[in-house]
Amino acid sequence: xxxxxxxxxxxxxxxxxxxxxxxxxxxxxxxxxxxxxxxxxxxxxxxxxxxxxxxxxxxxxxxxxxxxxxxxxxxxxxxxxxxxxxxxxxxxxxxxxxxxxxxxxxxxxxxxxxxxxxxxxxxxxxxxxxxxxxxxxxxxxxxxxxxxxxxxxxxxxxxxxxxxxxxxxxxxxxxxxxxxxxxxxxxxxxxxxxxxxxxxxxxxxxxxxxxxxxxxxx
Length: 218
Hints:
Blueprint: H1 2-48, H2 50-53, H3 59-67, H4 73-98, H5 119-140, H6 150-169, H7 175-185, H8 187-191, H9 193-212
Helix pairs in contact: 1-4, 1-6, 1-7, 3-4, 3-5, 3-9, 4-7, 5-6, 5-9, 7-9
């Protein structure tokens, strides 16, 4: 139960910090500031709840951990439930603060959304960059990794991913992060949510296979 509470809190914090930066401070801090808000939220939670749950706060990460053989299927499903619930709670708190559900930092693609990238670009970005993210996570938390630096490596990687991809999809690489804002915002965000569930999970699977088959392990 402590692990699930930690995942709930951690995912809520990720949405509050990252999406909150976009919604409440985006005009002032710009895309670079938003990118660092997501990354710093992960750094904070990695050291805050990492000792309890491993700080997955992302169903794609939990899938990667499962595929690599580091957790059971049952535990992965329980993590997913806590993560999706936490993301929804974070989005709900943000909606109360913002006074609206129209803009909660939801992901998307196509005409009218940021860089107006097409579906194939959005799909490729989310698969490839989630795979990279999971590779960094599994590598930096492995037995041979330097102790104490995983949170920093993971947070900086998420920052870099946002610096590259905000204009493409707003950056998901995390089905829960997309779920919370989209469910409350509705409309186009909800109709496009499928991509931000399918693509990150596919990317998480892809990244984990490198560890499942011992291709990136010492």
